[in-house]
Amino acid sequence: MTRIVRAGDLIGMPVVTLDEGRIVGEVRDVLFDPRRSSFVGFTLRGRGLLSSPLLGFLAESEVASTGKDAVMIASDSALMRDRDAVKQQVADKREAPGSEVVTASGTALGTINDVVLEIGPAGLAVVGYCVDRGEGRELIVPALEGAEWDDAMIVPDGAETASAEGLVGFSRILEQLRAARGGVGL
User: Which of 60, 90, 120 finishes a domain?
Assistant: First the structure.
């Protein structure tokens, strides 16, 4: 079974070890590679008012599972704490929020304000982008193969019609897109 969440909803979620049941920190940032629309990992911060603002990096391969209430890892050793190594892991990643979304024919759809993830048995996958259309309107655009990305994300014409408002509507769009592609990918 899979579920669809906004990346922003994972911020602040505790990270718990399976071996000791110990909370080692909480999710600070959700990192992904926008060119491949793939989840990369989490940066972690300490819990509490006086804790460290950055504890380290948790690679996608080290995440045992992501539940509704916590991110689970095998042990404390899954967390990369070396500051230089963490900087290297996140150096070429950039934030999607704030990026413009434009169709191939030049229609501006709005600005990305969050990333949509699918959580399933195989882990986390980027499946869409929440786009602020202004005046309180939001659209969720699928993370389609072939979307170009530099200063703005260029999506195929018609991407706005394969979009929805809200995660429930977006889940139906995903099912339709997958059915049209024989159940494979996005």
Answer: 90
104 and 83, same structural domain? Answer: no
Q: Which residues contact 38 (CB under 8 A, 6 or more apart)?
A: 32, 125, 126
Q: Is the pTM of this model over 0.85?
A: no
Sign of the CA dihedral running 52, 53, 58, 63: positive
pLDDT exceeds 80 at position 28: yes
Coil vs helix vs strand at 166: coil
pLDDT, position 35: 67
Range of the domain at 109: 100-180
What count of residues does the chain have? Answer: 186
Q: Could you tell me the two tokens for 140?
A: 């969720």
Of 49, 105, 56, nearest in space to 78 by CA = 56
Whether the CB-CB separation of 148 and 154 falls below 8 Å is answered with yes
H or E element, residue 179: helix 167-180
